[in-house]
Amino acid sequence: MFGLFKSVPSISTKELESLLSTQKITLLDVRSPGEYRGGHIQKANNVPLNKITTYKGKNTEPVYVICQSGMRSKNAAKQLKKMGYNVINVRGGMSQWTGKTRGGK
């Protein structure tokens, strides 16, 4: 029974910000391409939630997942975990992010 509900670890946007400043990490933004263009974290790759199962990255290092509020990224993290990735969800998503963003008009 417990195997079904392995929880995905998560970090805050502040923790993410300090990670980004100290090391190279894999960060996936699972929002729509339009939302991503509206403003995203510089090192984030856009892999919309509906395409997350096509993601092909190294599964030797952690994959951080972010969306707007944390719901889609949690869903994406569960799918990536099933695919064998070591996934960390970013709680609060872009709505909590206070660091620099790129994109937008």
From TrEMBL:
Gene3D superfamilies documented for this protein: Rhodanese-like domain
Pfam family, one: Rhodanese
CDD domains assigned to the protein according to its UniProt record, in alphabetical order: RHOD (cd00158)
Coiled coil: none
Listed SUPFAM superfamilies: Rhodanese/Cell cycle control phosphatase (SSF52821)
Residue span, Rhodanese domain: 21-102
Protein name: Rhodanese-like domain-containing protein
Organism: Enterococcus lemanii
